[in-house]
Amino acid sequence: MNQERGNWGSNIGFLMAAIGSAVGLGNIWGFPYKMGRSGGFTFLVVYLLLAIFVGFVIMMGELAMGRKTGKGTIGAYHTLSKNFKWVGWLAVFAPFVIMSFYSVLGGYCIEYLALNLSNLAFAGAEVMTGSDLFGAMLTNQFGCLMFTMLFMVICYLINRGGVSGGIEKFNKVGMPALFVCLLIIIARALTMEGAVEGLKFMFVPGYAVKAGFIEQAPGFLTVLATAGGQMFFSLSLAMGAMITYGSYLSKEENLVKNSGIIVVADTIVATMAGLAVIPAAVANGIQNGIPFAEIKLSGPSLLFVTLQDVFAAMGAVGPLFGVIFYLLVLIAAISSAISLIEVVSTYFMDRAAEKGKEGNRPRIVLLVCLAIMVEAAIVAWDGLGSNDMWVPFQNSLGVVGAFNDCWLDFMDFWSEGLAMPLGALLMSIMVGWEIKPKTLLDELHVGGSSKIDAFFSFSMKFVVPVIMALILVGQLNDFLALGLF
Ligand code: PHE
Question: Which residue from 234, 235, 336 has its CB within 8 A of the most atoms of ligand 1, so it is best to mutate?
Answer without folding.
Answer: 336
